[in-house]
Amino acid sequence: MANLLRSIPSVDRLLNEPSIKEMSKGLSLLETTEIVRTFLNQLRTQLIQSPAKVDYEQVVSQLADEIRRLQLQKFQSVINATGVLIHTNLGRAPLPTSALQRLKELGNGYFNLELDLTTGTRGSRYANAARLLNVLSASDNPSETDTVVVNNNAAAVLVVLKALTEGKEVIVSRGELVEIGGGFRIPEVMAASGCLLKEVGTTNRTRLSDYRNAITPNTAAILRVHPSNYHIVGFTESVSRQSLAQLCKEHDLLLIEDVGSGAFYPFDEPLVSTALKHSSIVTYSGDKLLGGPQAGIISGRADLISIIKKDPLLRAIRIDKLSLIVLEEVLQLYLRKEYDRLPLWVMATIPLDKIRQRAETWLDHLGPGLIGEVKPTQSTMGGGSLPGETIPSWALVIHSEQLTPSQLEERLRSADPPIMGRIHQDRVWLDPRTVLPEQDKLVQRILAQGVTVCS
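Below the sequence we write its predicted structure tokens.
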């Protein structure tokens, strides 16, 4: 065993191996050394458990594969050809150029994040974003409406329930007890807030009487949750926002609504502004239909927002300064109605003929081993926004006689930059709608390389 372990190559020898040096480009020597040491420790453990002759070339090859795997974990540009506009795994909504420019201008130095330049005293980081959101939501009573921003929408729901309903009952329809990304479930968020969940109705049918019969002296609110990433069809029944608002008014309850996607005009319902006409508090995301950075936005009655601002949890989940800079610029674009500067809106409204033309151009660049055709398809908004709704599109549909669909998809994912498509009907579909126009040349170059496999 001692001789076997001595046959393991040294760290220095592997660091000087040409293929390891090539694969480690962009990594510091300290990081590469740690990767090699960890790999050799794993190899040592494996040999102790299952003794076998050490093949140096095989060790080098396996180490190179491990470095490549770790290199791919670094953030890098990815071409989204999935047809999913708000792709959670790919960073959701692309940010406007003007927002990134603003981020560079302020992020390079100091700025008045929490400073009132008029008085010279400490100010609120939420003040300007709240003002812009109040204007954008077109509240009937702007002086009675306020907004606060946290780091994501799950946190927004959590702090609202904790600050306003802790220890009290909150009524929710069983059909709205959704699970959102990452395995977070509404019942778990409610439990963490300290409120008492009271389920009513069934998965597919909940009536106004179900809510009314569930109200007790300990009831504080009704929570209305947008279904986010699913859509129930068929034998269904739900209660309108207006009816719930009237019921809450009759019993002096709060109507808290999570609209999820954060839609403002020009997108369709559920609009934040519509929800605010009836609900006491509305929560929504910044990086879904709003097309901005990750954020959880809480808008509603000023007296309730004041209570939320005083909750200790708020500081732990508040929005960071860089996201706030981007959010303010995105809101300015909405207020100026410059929708054509919002990448998400531009993608959603690309004319069909232009998408088909781009797909046909990609088809013309297919290299050896690739077979393709252009076919109609459906893009989706994604990210838990507008479930069940699709946008007509065109896609380049490719396959190879030498590779399985999974192998072809992996080949594209391993390209530089990676191309993310989707497998459907034993083919790889590439939808130009979600590919930035300036990335077309990259797609063409990668497709032109083909997938020739050596025998």
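The CA atoms of residues 376 and 394 lie 4 Å apart.
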